[in-house]
Amino acid sequence: MELIDTKHPNMNSIEFVRWLAAASAAPFGLTNVYATLKCDTSYTAFRGEQLIAQPAFEEAQHFLEQICDWLLCRWSKWAVRKGLIEDKFKEGWIRKVSWNWPKMKDVDVVKEQNAIALKLKNQTGSYAEFYGADWEEKLLQIAKEKEFCAKHGLVHPSTQTVSGTVVDGQDEQDRQDDEEGKEEA
Q1: Residue 54 CA to chain centroid, in angstroms?
Q2: Are 120 and 127 in contact (CB under 8 A)?
Q3: What is the signed CA dihedral for 64, 68, 74, 79, rounded to 10 degrees?
Q4: Whole-model pTM?
Q5: Residues 119-135: what's their mean pLDDT?
Q6: What is the pLDDT of residue 170?
Q7: Helix axis angle, 13-25 relative to 43-82, nearest 10°?
Q8: Three-class SS of residue 166?
Q9: Rounded Cα distance, 146 and 136, in Å
Q10: How far apart, in whole angstroms, are the C-alpha atoms of residue 177 and residue 170?
Q11: Band of the pLDDT at 86, cuts 50, 70, 90?
Q12: What residues contact 49, with CB distance under 8 A and at least 6 apart?
């Protein structure tokens, strides 16, 4: 066993870091090719480095979450004592706090959106997961926008098919029933 001499730089540190990156990439199904490419040489290499680094960022975010929870709990108790806020906290409120951290963006937005739609359809994902803590407000805003568009004769993008056909939520039978009801009245 040799002690590292800290007065001299290690000439092999770059190669060591690349070797370490290759070993880190293996559990994520990334080949050694991703790890040995330099991120400034191609998009593939850049994406590979992103995928290798992301788990470390997520772990750091979880660590920060614990610190933020601790700080929020201490601050809220202090603020109640000082009279800055009212004590309306219910037992276990801290477990309901969620922090939103940046996530790694997907390369193909269309594939990402299709995956979200499929997760919602198969009930393997939730609006809270995709929209965050204020998911109800966001869905209500979307409903409000759709209603506004319908009221003013505008086409909301969510009511169009890929070919541009407008789908208003009614099938042909519903339309016929509505027309018959109008004629009878």
Answers
A1: 13
A2: yes
A3: 160
A4: 0.44
A5: 88
A6: 54
A7: 80
A8: strand
A9: 15
A10: 11
A11: confident
A12: 21, 34, 39
